[in-house]
């Protein structure tokens, strides 16, 4: 399993950034590092008609501006995706209409509501033939999706389950396609990244029970900023899936034995993600690109495919796709989808952020301010574009309880230096400063040596600082 962050990111800069906020932060950070002006919004509807989805837009809506242009974004989706395209993608039935019209293969199926009689639904389903898949028309994240329904008894039981357990009232039944599951990210006529998705599973070691193996795997997922909020949950679906394999949560698997815990491969349901960008076939690329072209005003999106030896079928289009799965796959190489998105919206900035990977902004502070509803818009201070040179100074002497850190902060801000200062338990003070101006950083050692009037600096030790630096200067 991948443990390291891509070189342009770090655990520190993404601390506390989780869920759908992660995708927004990744795109915003990429644009901001290129010198674009970044604004976050509490209620973006005051500034743009960009369509938002879900119940909590805070921390997901922002704008990026160059000298000549401004674009608004919601999560990974920018305003080059029309609101009409978002509406089409939200409805699985409408999506299928546009795909079918463009000749893009989709599974045969039909739509029904919770008001319709069960026997009538069963009769129509029989005309398609088993196996089947049942899913909500307007659902997401795999909620309410039941796959590989093989018999009438299973279909009736599945209908009862989704109607009782979920708030959905509008559904689709489709022919179930056997094959591998993929998420392909497309911008216009180019595939930017692809992941293969495998249903939630565990591998036996001859010692631990199934439940213990799930707990062990979840601990590993918690270390991944994307997967940490997408753990394997032990629910009735998992217990039923195990029961069908004559297994229970208390069984111990043989070493190397792989068992699947769910039929659907959604990462949000605990599925594995494997980078597949270099292995994706030309035929799969063509289907994914044609799917984006089939929806007017879509331009970029995540396309869900099922592929086997005989066919490639589009299951779903995600106009507001989760891109963090490409940057933080469970296995394989991370793909910089945000870079490609900013290239598309601001082509004049291509390559400008390649040396700015050490600088970042504190998203948690921005999010907390917006969530307090005390402020409607936050403009992030401009990023120093280019290679950042940084040093860590450790100051000894009478430097605590004499106003040293406040004095240092003022000195750093006057010189437009970024970093922080904090007291150490041994009575010393540490100062980290970074800038594109190497001379300014090195001369700050003399500033540290001077100190405020009440201080008495005895020594300043200096070290090269290789880690990331937060924009601005803070007292920790």
List key phrases describing it:
single chain, 13 helices, Alpha-Beta Plaits, Dna Ligase, domain 1, 476 residues, alpha+beta
Which stretches are poorly predicted, pLDDT < 50 over at least 5 residues?
A: none
Outline the biggest β-sheet: 5 strands, antiparallel
Average residue pLDDT: 92
* Global structural class: alpha+beta
The beta-strand count equals 23
In whole angstroms, the N-to-C terminal distance is: 34 Å
**Number of helical stretches of at least 4 residues:** 13
Strand order within the widest beta sheet: 4-3-2-1-17
Spatial shape:
elongated
Helix content: 25-40%
Content of β-strand: 25-35%
Radius of gyration: 26 Å
Domain ATP-grasp: 96-346
EC number: 3.6.1.7
Active site: 405, 423
GO molecular function: acylphosphatase activity
Structure, briefly:
The protein has helices at residues 20-33, 83-90, 92-101, 118-128, 152-165, 210-222, 236-243, 282-294, 324-327, 337-345, 363-371, 404-414, 438-450, and strands at residues 37-41, 61-65, 70-74, 77-78, 109-113, 132-136, 146-149, 170-175, 180-187, 190-198, 201-203, 258-260, 272-275, 300-307, 312-318, 359-360, 377-380, 389-398, 418-423, 429-435, 456-464, 469-470, 473-475. By secondary structure, the protein is α+β, with helices and mostly antiparallel strands.
